[in-house]
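Schema walk-through. Below, the input block comes first and the output block second. Nothing else is stored per chain. Lengths vary across the set, and this one has 122 residues.
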Amino acid sequence: MTESHAERRRFKRIAFDAKTELSQGQNSWPVELVDLSLKGLLIQRPTSWLGDPTQPFSVEIHLGSEVEVHMDVDLSHEDNGQLGFVCTHIGLDSISHLRRLIELNLGDEAELDRELKALAED
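--- output ---
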């Protein structure tokens, strides 16, 4: 990541390991989650990758036995065997779970408030 790209980043990424599945149409891939933010996620590219970068994807992140985050995402970049996705839609329940996860990992309520404000501006 270039310095200017890092400076432009408004959303803190948190390293997180959770069972994650990426899907597109009839294709789905279990993937290794590298990190996530309020705006997207980074995964390791699966070995059986056949995704169409011009079409949308869905992702399910399993946080617990009955807690999941569902997002519609677009591929934003591919670099060094990793795929970066930007969130295009997330439901109320999912954003609530994700918000709580980010809040617990940031440990700074003011930082979380800044990120939520930036998310609303996008």
